[in-house]
Batch of 2 targets.
Target 1
Amino acid sequence: MQDSQFLTTHYKLSHQKGKFTWESPSNIALIKYWGKKENQIPENPSISFTLDVCKTITSLSFSTKTKKDDEFSFDVFFDGKQKDAFKPKIKTFFTRIERYLPFLKDYYFKIETSNTFPHSSGIASSASGMSALALCLMSIEKLQYPRMSDDDFFKKASFLARLGSGSACRSIEGDLIVWGEHDDIVESSNLYGIKYPLQVHKNFKNYQDTILLVDKGEKQVSSSIGHNLMYGHPFAFQRFEQANRNLSKLIPALKNGDLKSFIEIIESEALTLHAMMMTSLPYFILMKPNTLEIINRIWKFREESGLHIGFTLDAGANVHVLYPENEANKIYEFIKNELVAYCQNGHYICDKIGFGAKQI
Ligand code: DP6
């Protein structure tokens, strides 16, 4: 699969101005993307649950520039306030996608964005933010090609979002998304996310994710730096192989509703992700004492109750507690009674598996 399929031909500026708004969800990886090649190509395939509650809402207003120049021209507003700190990342994104969207230098853009989750919650907004922006840009592209199919629209949105932030390509659709080539998943691609095409047992319907906000501060080490530390990492090769194997093992667990195997795979993935951080050079630790306290309590409760509670982590201290809907009452009681005490200011977010972005 070549990226040339996403190049735009016969381009002609047809609209002077307009505005599009999309809301796009966050996602939580079950098999982790950690390590990439040039051009945001992942070293291994990953799979994620799309979330439902944690979202970014972005409006993109565009108007033709009065004077044509060779610059990207845009302003960013976050929660109604100008936010120049977001500009460098968006400029990098525009530079990467310019060849696929030739109108980018013809317009002035006003980007207005906000999140449904608090900015300082330790929840990364790059996946939801970059996917929402990619979708707004695709809506402009669609003005040129009104007959573009939904399939092509969402595929290119995912392709573009990946160039903003890798995990963002998994935030366009739901409810389970695979990104990165894998032998057992025929249509899988390194260039964009696809809906998981294989059978999924009803046990995973409405799967719950309670996000325990252990540390709401800025991360000490960004994901981009973390990915780079996988170059020359002593366990890199084994890790990329393991991710492929774990995805192979996840396929029958998803098919058969095998929650025990599912939990074993996702917890191992979460701990391996953090083990990679601890064994890179320079090494770093993003978990906090309360992260470990919560993990130990989850394990103890699982042992005692026989319920199917599991966890995953992203690149931070927060814990995503994952569990099936039919056990939700008892598990939620346990979370409130025993785990919330370990959250910063008692804060947590009740989320669940969701179905992707929406135009509003
Ligand atoms: C730990 O997608 O944030 O959440 O491509 O550099 O923007 P960039 O990285 P990013 O990395 C996400 C890492 C992760 C695992 C995952 O979501 O698969």
Target 2
Amino acid sequence: MNYGRFSDDGREYIITNAATPAPWINYIYNGRYFATISNNGGGISYYKSPLHGRITRYRINDVPPDRPGKYIYIRDLDSGSIWSLTWQPVGRRVEAYRVIHGFGYTRAEADVEGIASSVLYFVPADDDREIWRTRLTNTSGRPRRLAVTGYVEFALGHALVDLINQCDDQHFNRAHFEKDLNALFATKTYWVTETRGTQHQENKEWDQWAFFTVNTPIAAYETVRERFIGPYRSETNPLAVESGQLSSRDTDFGNTVGALQTDIELAPGQTRDIVFSMGVIPKPEFESRKRGAALAFRDSASIEGAFAQVRENWRSFFSRTRVETPDAQANIFLNGWSPYQAKVAFDVGRVASFYYWGIGRGFGFRDTAQDVIAITLSDRAKARERIGLLARQMQKDGRVYHHFYGDGQGEFTKHCDDPLWFILAVTEYIKETGDFGLLDEKETYLDAEPGPILEHLLAVVHFARTNTARHGLPIFGRGDWNDTLDYIGGEEGGESVWGGMFYAAMLDRLVELLEAAGRPGSAPEVRAVRDRFRAAVEEHCWDGEWYIRAFGENDRRIGSRENTYGKIFINTQSWAVIAGLPDRARLVRAMDSARRLLGCTYGPKICAPAFREIDPKIGLITRCVRGKKENGAVFCHPAAWLIQAECLLGRGDAAYDYYRTLLPDRVDSDIFVAEPYVYSQYITSDEHEGAGRASHSWQTGTAAWMYRVSFDYILGIRPTYAGLLIDPVIPSSWPGFKAERVFRGTRYFIEVENPDGVESGVGSIAVDGHPIEGSILPISDAPESGVRVRLGR
Ligand code: GLC
């Protein structure tokens, strides 16, 4: 079944059948004010934090799903006919709707009973509000009178407390309408800022006022959900819309909503813009700013201006890279949707989606560090800021919070990998920017006075060196990258083989950085630690045809041919290559084993066979249904590393084959379920009868990695300290490709030719007509540079 398609230029996804198998969402935000918006108008809005600053509610696990949202109801004042401008919540006339998700905006179009509508949802860059510009055109040929009602349901503060303590929480809600401003205001006189669900009563109030307004005079309004919806009804058939009776009463209690009804007349052929907007005003500034907030964005010019700004910001974000490969589908992702998803995941911090409700967890340390690689190219300042945030989650001994909220709150777990990801973020940032000065900039520790970033990096080395066990591999603790290998070895403890490879890879990056920075002082020590990890892996972890995944209790080998389930894991094959292990024959064998034993129609599986028995000395993975999540699904994030590893081996056909298989719009949507324009965390594998179903879309490390791996390793254009490296590893069937990339102020126009049909190996490179030695383009002061690359001899 087909629910939509990309626009011709690939920059929009157009949903033509609103009854998608799951909500297909988009994000509109400016970095402070965030909103999700589905193809059916569902979604949340929050200010800065979906946990602490939740503006609107979203009912999790609800039936039907995806409610409430940002709804606009129409009631024909003559016929009494009712519909909504997105298919849901009223749910009429599926065929006439079109929803367009673009970069930073969503537009819902409909044509119902002679009223053509188009609602543009976006968040201005400089104003903390969302705008719903509703354009109505009367195509019916007769005069029309319509009641147009915008509707939201408020949460007002702490989303988790709102959920678990609603019976008490509702006693602190206040909402009132101010006639001269034509605006409704709502807040809560109580606020909890702890991250947990708690009974602790903090002595404070929510620090925001929410406002909801429209640019045409209000005929009536509502502030209480029960009065709007009515008993035993839902958003599908609200009593107030049906009866046309909104109470126009303020309230100081209850489930608080904002409903604004405005009555309009449309002559035949006439078009009118009705502009709803909802936003926040910090409490101390409420009196001085509320008039300005309510009156802003009432005219078309200011809205067009703000929308043009949003489009320009995204255009500028995308302008750093551009590709033209023989694969049109890949081009759509590489030029738009991959970097877009990566940036959204970075900005949202992975906490809010249709799957993550923004109530359970803060920023993951490892997730955040990986997300940094999505934006080093486009936003150096933001990358720097995020590195600072990460540094501040570290103790002097190198241990870091596993997840944190940025306000000093966080949680230590015993994952063995977390601190090492810091090295990835710092090295990618410096490679891109050349900003070695970062190493001397100071950031505080959780438990100590500020120290330079270099010292933080060396604290990580200290952690790596000391967190080792019997075989010289990292003590597994409560997990490594794989959160569900959480009881390896039971209480006795186990060792992470992937951890050993990962430590080696990160320490190798650090050695390279110290040398490039002209600070080689600690390099010998770091190199020695790196070599010990490489040696430990080589000595103990080869299983004959692949690398094992872990040691459990009593030297038990996990991820080995001796096992019944989980014989082979993806990460210890790909990272053997990424870690630079020396034995090429083994690496090739390991990667071939991965291809043979992990491959399925939907991509490479995270491990196989999936576990079918609970093993408390392995952990959560064995408790999970087979073929889903970490228990044998196609987990897309490590699949990106498999692509990287194939490229490092120079095997372009294999790398591209994985890449193509994983493109999200390849599978029938009735099977795939999740959005076809972004990657999901995982795709159910052939070990489950629901094979092919994707889940946890948008907020996944896949976003940043697929973007970077495809650009850096398949196209092979990647930053190094010395300059931009060109080392494509492409399918032999490609005659070549073109790419543009900005690096240290120069825009490179790169043309790659592959006359001999090879998979890798640069024959010659000419920069502005002059041949160069090697594959690194020297750093240049020219604004533009033309690069011709010939693969093969
Ligand atoms: C989830 C987590 C990520 C973890 C992965 C594998 O995506 O966000 O941190 O590495 O699962 O367990």
